[in-house]
Each structure stands twice: as structure tokens, then as C-alpha cells.
């Protein structure tokens, strides 16, 4: 159940639920699932559009920081908003230095 993907786009419903639509990050076709569903998300979740994520059977990472827990094969639960925002900041700060 590993994931190594870019987020093609975030589909967000009015009730706060939605789907992360995933595409392959590289040419090896290793994205894992084609989508991950969530029940709730931080309001800033659409900032994930175009970013790279990776993970295993129990977590999803943005760079080196966990942003969600895996719940089964195709569902995730995002971490709390403040921690999500910290993960986004760290991801962009490190990317700016690379």
C-alpha cells in the first residue's frame, strides 16, 4: 500500500469531504492508488495541488512530515490544522533551499 505520487488535484465537497486525485511522480508508474478519500480536511487542503506525497500502509507524508493517517486502502484522515500548516511551511521552506 505504498504511495509515491503527485497530487493532480484536490476535489473538495461543500461538506468538507473530498478526494486527492493522484498521478505518477516518475516514469516507473509507482503512484499506488489513483485517489485517496477524506471525510474532513484543513481549509487549506487545496494548497496540496501539484505537490508530491509519499507514504506507507499507515501514513501519508509531505516531504519529511506526516500530513495524514491511512485508514484502509483508499481513505485518509488529515492531521490537525496547525500541524498541517506547519508541514506545508516546512515543505516549502526546504524546497526553496534545494
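Sequence proposed for the structure above (98 residues):
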Amino acid at each position: 500500500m505504498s504511495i509515491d505520487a503527485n497530487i493532480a488535484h484536490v476535489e473538495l465537497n461543500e461538506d468538507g469531504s473530498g478526494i486527492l486525485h493522484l498521478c505518477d511522480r516518475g516514469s516507473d508508474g509507482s503512484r499506488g492508488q489513483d485517489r485517496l478519500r477524506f471525510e474532513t480536511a484543513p481549509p487549506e487542503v487545496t494548497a496540496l495541488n501539484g505537490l508530491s506525497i509519499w507514504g506507507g500502509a499507515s501514513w501519508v507524508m509531505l516531504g519529511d512530515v506526516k500530513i495524514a493517517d491511512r485508514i484502509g486502502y483508499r481513505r485518509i484522515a488529515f492531521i490537525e490544522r496547525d500541524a498541517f500548516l506547519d508541514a506545508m511551511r516546512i515543505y516549502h521552506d526546504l524546497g526553496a533551499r534545494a
